Every structure is written in structure tokens, then in C-alpha cells.
């Protein structure tokens, strides 16, 4: 079990968070963890570009981050009390023997994350406001409903269309559902004014261990 000894935020004069830090103890080891997040302000793309191309860029970016040994973070926060709307943040996290060491390591990985996002022209990122991360921390610590999923599925640009029933034509309207499922989820929660956090945390695993783990999971689920 991980024990949090202390933690805090490093902020600038504008109230923006440079990084969050944690002093931790686990299995006889004392270390620090630094988390750097940046808020997505603008994400633009060519409207003539196909969804498949956008998803391909994202998949290539995730793959590139894996091979660069990056522990990527992504969080979409639906903040409705107080109302801030939907806030998306990308980041990276890393451990170190000292706080300064952890911050340096996290900053190197954050550079990889920002490089991935440059695949989308004119993307603009900014340091998050302290109020956003305070809400984030309080929501996580007080939430009673958590759903955890292990793994990152490959994107599917089209759903499988079953055989038509009663002579009807096949329904192609859901073909872009995979690309839009998060937007559907966000819009649904927003319509209820229900606060939420959708978070992806990538704790990188070496390729050989990843293959062994995947084989174990396959054996378990196939029984």
C-alpha cells in the first residue's frame, strides 16, 4: 500500500499550477512523485479530414509515448459545482529520489506528451488554474462511485453492422460511434449537470511483461 506522507502544488504568481508533488512511502521505499498537467485550450483540425485519420494520429501518438517510456495522464473533468464546464488536461507523471528529481523526470515526459499533441495543428495548451486542481483533488477523494478499466482498446472507426432484419436495409448510422462515444458521454453528463472525472493513467509496463500479462488475462477470460 502506498502511504502519502505529504503533498502540495507548486504555483506561479498567476495562480497557475506548475506541478503537483507527492512524498510517498511504499514497501520500505521513500520517494517523490511529480505530476505535470496542462489544460487543453484549443484543439483544431481540418474539417475535411476523415475521422479515421484523426484516430490514426491519436493511436500513433499513444504508441509513440509507450516506446518513449512515458507515463501519460489524461483527464476530462465535468465541473458543475461550481460551474466551469468540461475541462480537458494532458500530462505526465514520474518518480524520483527527491522532489526536484521527480519534477525534472516528469518535465522530460511532459515534453513527449506535448510533442504528440503537435500532430494536431494550432493546438493550444496552458497551465491549469489552482482552483481546477483543488476541485479535482477534492472530487477524487470524496467520490463514492468509481469504475476502473484495465487496458487501452484499439479505436474502431466503424461498428460491425449485423445482418438486416425483416428485409430492412442495414443501419450505417452508428458507424462513427466509436469516434464519438466520449462526446456522447460528456454531453449526457452535461445535460444532467452531473460532475464527473474521466481519467486515463498510463503506468508504463515493459513490453515483455506486457505480453506475459496479456497472455495471463487471455487465459483467464477464455476459461
What does this protein look like?
- The chain has 223 residues and is of the alpha+beta class.
- The chain has one domain.
- Helices cover 36% and strands 29% of the residues.
- It is built from five helices and seven strands, in the order E-E-E-H-E-E-H-E-H-H-E-H.
- Strands 1, 2, 3, 4, 5, 6 and 7 form a seven-stranded antiparallel beta sheet that branches.
- A hairpin with a 2-residue loop joins strand 2 (17-26) and strand 3 (29-42).
- Helix 1 runs antiparallel to helix 2.
- Residues 51-55 and 159-176 have low confidence and may be disordered.
Q: Specify the number of helices.
A: 5
Strand element count? 7
User: What does the overall shape look like?
Assistant: globular
End-to-end distance: 31 Å
Give me the strand/helix succession. Answer: EEEHEEHEHHEH
How would a crystallographer describe the biggest sheet? Answer: 7 strands, antiparallel
Unreliable stretches, pLDDT < 50, 5 or more residues? 51-55, 159-176
Which strand-content bin applies to the residues? 25-35%
Oligomer classification: single chain
Number of domains: 1
The overall pLDDT, averaged over residues, is 76
SSE topology:
Layout: E1 3-11, E2 17-26, E3 29-42, H1 51-67, E4 72-80, E5 83-96, H2 99-117, E6 124-126, H3 130-142, H4 177-191, E7 196-201, H5 207-222
Antiparallel strand pairs: 1-2, 2-3, 3-5, 3-6, 4-5, 4-7
